[in-house]
Amino acid sequence: MxxxxxxRNILTVGGWTLLSRGAGFARDVMMxxxxxxxxxxxxxxxxxxLPNMFRRFFAEGAFNMAFVPMFAKKLEGGEDAKVFARDAxxxxxxxxxxxxxxxxxLMPALVWAMASGFVGDQRFDLAVEFGRISFxxxxxxxxxxxxxGILTTHGHFTxxxxxxxxxxxxxxxxxxxxxxGGWDMGRTLSxxxxxxxxxxxxxxxxxxxxxxxxxxxxxxxxxxxLKRLAxxxxxxxxxxxxxxxxxxxxxxxxxxxxxxxxxxxxxxxxYQLPLGVVGIAIGTVLLPDLSRxxxxxxxxxxxxxxxxxxxxxxxxxxxxxxxxxxxxxPLCSVLYQRGAFKPQDTDATAIALAIYGAGLPAFVxxxxxQPLFYAREDSRRPFLYAIASMIxxxxxxxxxxxxxxxxxxxxxxxxxxxVMVWQLWRGSRSMGPEAQFDDRFRERLPRIILASLLMxxxxxxxxxxxxxxxxxxxxxxxxxLLLITFGIVSYIGIGTLIGAFRLSDLRTLRRSAVxxxxxxxxx
Length: 523
Known about the structure:
The chain is mainly alpha-helical. The chain folds into two domains: 425 residues, no CATH class; 71 residues, no CATH class. It is built from 21 helices and no strands. The longest helix has 39 residues.
């Protein structure tokens, strides 16, 4: 295997994630136009969030955090990684089949747990119906997450990153067909969910097969390796469950205000764009990278990976966070306000977006700091940190609701995110040199913050100057594009001038990378 560039791999995953989030945003714009924030929209958003919530619980946020380090170490040690991957997949699939059946039967209870404010109106019955149609998605997408872990550990980041693009394109096609054919939009969206799951699983299975992993269904075997995987994954699963409880609390608070579930969801989609492009890319690349370095005793390489990943993350995320706060209203107005999405929906969504924007750097830093623990197979401390974060979230969401209404849920998410970052940082202080920030990072961070704030001031003045065009139906897209371009150019110019970063950092990716030892041939 050729030497791997950390930043280049982050850009590869980030580029595909950007394409996916762009397609996902087009999907949400279409959904907002067709359904607005009405009962069908809220019912589908809750139903779709259920398999996605448990997907993060079982696979991406927990199981893979335990699986990837063990799988990477087996590759480095020349052990039989294929047998381990097969046993892990069969074990996960068995659990998910049982869970899918139980969840589908108990869907009314799950909807009540997610949005008890729906009880007594049509939103509840619709959410139960849509949930039963779409819940099997958890089985397919969780297996996709495991196969993606195999692919990324082997350095196949493109194949692992392209599947969400496929999902969003299928949603867009389904809505276009429903609009032309006069189909029921809520049921069309619900049936599209499991269909996209099957398509994503087929693609990742085929990609894994090309590199020698012909994983076929079979009865699970309780091997010593699978037992160890379960012991490591259990606290991570619990930690993932705590994070999902935070989401449950937020949706419960929102469900008592008509339209609030949709407002928070549409705001979430916008701030998920930079979070996904940067955060998911870094998390996808950094965990197997650190796991392999620790397996080889490469502390200095691990430190370089952490610092360049954190530096890149903040250089991309801090200006995005400032922009989401400063121009939240123009973003929501231009991108969402049409059809069934009204001006009052724009105002409420913009409030939530600005609050989420303040927490964006925290959510990305999670992806930077958590691999320090999971690469050491330490899932216990992140679980304890997640408990503290859950308590903070619940207290804030419920306690602030009488004064802030639905916005309490957004504030709780942001504040608990920063609490989690503080705990992860404190916990990493007891680790080795690979967990320490270097001189370059400490020198550049204040400059990145200053460049972001100055860019925010430029955006504020720009939004005032372009306000007439932003309010004009004919010119609003061009005006928003001009405003965003002005912000990007301002940030790059200011950042380069004060030394927050150098453009050569991106042009000479190989020079900024730290070489990894070659993987053993597994094909």
